[in-house]
Design goal:
7 strands, single chain, 139 residues, alpha/beta
Amino acid sequence: MTTAADIMHAGAQWIPATETLDRAAQLMARLNVGALPVSDSSERLCGIITDRDIVVGCVARGHDPAQVTCGDLCQGTPRWIESDADVSAVLDEMESHQIKRLPVIENKRLVGMISEADLAQHLSEDQLAGFVEKVYARR
């Protein structure tokens, strides 16, 4: 059985909800990623911030990313998966919520992220085609 831990990118890092968007962008650049899980004061997942969120939700609206926090932009219920979940559960979670990145949690701690690139490396062509069709389909 292939699990979330088998296909995830290990070593993902949180960014606190109280941290500013300019700092989030700097961390993304340093880590060469396009998204960061956002944690509350108890180090629990409270959202995900993406490079697109920063540009569209802050910069394009004329706001200063040094004055807006990650928590200000996080919206909705964060989705995640346990590290021992089967890859079919990973696909179900990502497809049913039409998301492209999924934090992986173990013992209530972030241990990795699963992105489209991770799926492309580990799924069959049929599985990948099904994912693309469901995630990018218009509702």
